What does this fold into?
Amino acid sequence: MAQIETFYGVMRRQGITRRSLLKYSSLTAAALGLGPTFAPKIAHAMETKPRTPVVWLHGLECTCCSESFIRSAHPLVKDVVLSMISLDYDDTLMAAAGHQAEAALEHTLEKYKGEYILAVEGNPPLNEDGMFCIVGGKPFLDQLKRAAKDAKAVIAWGSCASWGCVQAARPNPTQAVPIHKVITDKPIIKVPGCPPIAEVMTGVITYMLTFGKIPELDRQGRPKMFYGQRIHDKCYRRPHFDAGQFVEHWDDENARKGYCLYKVGCKGPTTYNACSTVRWNEGTSFPIQAGHGCIGCSEDGFWDKGSFYDRLTNIKQFGIEQNADEIGTAVAGGVGAAIAAHAAVSVIKRVTSTSNKEHGEQES
Amino acid sequence: MSALSQLLQQYYSEADERMSDLPFYNALLSVEMAAWHCLDADLEAGVLITPWCLNLLWRPADPDSLPEKGSECVLTLASGEYSGVVAEAEGLGRFASASLLSDTSSLASQEQARLLAHEIADLLFLPSLSAASEEVPENPARRAMFRRMMGAGQ
It folds into this structure.
């Protein structure tokens, strides 16, 4: 492997003190849903491990993922994480342009062959041999395949790279596809959302860079630590749902009382994301708190699932992954104390406070 | 069953009709406070079964000690810390609720739901109940005397 600096070396060079590093480690531990005892482990890893280069490619997309990423809530997070990322190539954030930029990409891919993480924002169109998205005079499809070939791992930023998103919605004239349709021989960490939450993006990338491994994923390839629960499960309006109190029409009396938005189209019951816990804009709010239902932007094919304002009539329609709720099946499969006891443990993990989680424990 | 648990069960029973035509509703289940404990003088908690969810509910003796409706709150027990959301109902005031199950469709009977609820309640509450019983000193006056001698409580 090429000789590269440690994270800490890079941070020191940028004027980040050890005190700030420790603060960052605590913030990251919290963002990752790990217990506070995990912070020293993060700090130690960052002080001693070599920096892993990240190459960030852009296909068919709107750059909302980049916009989200560079607006991480805490300035320190943004500074530290950006210092971790090799800006040798990111056509939105890098200083270079034109041939110089393309040369930088090739140089990075060669120098860190097999060691870099490939982060992909957007997706490739397959129609007309990829001609609907050209980067540096060549189809993005070719650039993606080239960069993926020697990548250690691949991150799919946002719903475009993860599922296809709006450009893959029917009738999909460019035949845009999620990146897993093109990259089939590498682990892909999907971080869906339109865009994903900034702290989720920095949390995922920090975990990978710090610990040198991918976080635990669900069956759809999403990090369980952020996508392990439905928005509905931790929604601040949930008590109104449980009590059968719903907004029936926009701006009715129930809307003013802050009742549940399910009947006006909220997709929170079928959407796996961290919006109701991490929230947006420094944890200030999220769509439901602003009075609009969740549109399910982190779920596969959400553009083709009907109006944002139609209520869900089939709660399986978004292809809910059975994870925590599998316990119900376990109980139904055989009524026995042992099975119920096992199921009960799974259920309790869902409500266990983050600050109380064991060392390194993640959502299950 | 305490008066509070009965009031809570009544509150959710009243929601049953409003929920019955929604896809979340499992007609094989009914509203039932499957477990309820007075954990100490300051706290009551239990596990509620409804046809649309399984919830952990709790309320301190002073409901106003909970933050305002919609806020996150944490229940601290001997078995761990559990996060939920503050609810508020007319006639009940504030209480806290945490979703244990959002999808009850795989529960095939009330008996199965009850079995699960009891297992959850045992895991959550038994350590607190055991600790409370162990904390009763054989001779409180003697313990208080030693505490004074050691300067505790000053």
Remarks:
- Chain B has one domain: 3-149.
- The CA atoms of residues 77 and 103 of chain B lie 26 Å apart.
- The mean pLDDT of chain B is 88.
- Chain B has three helices and six strands.
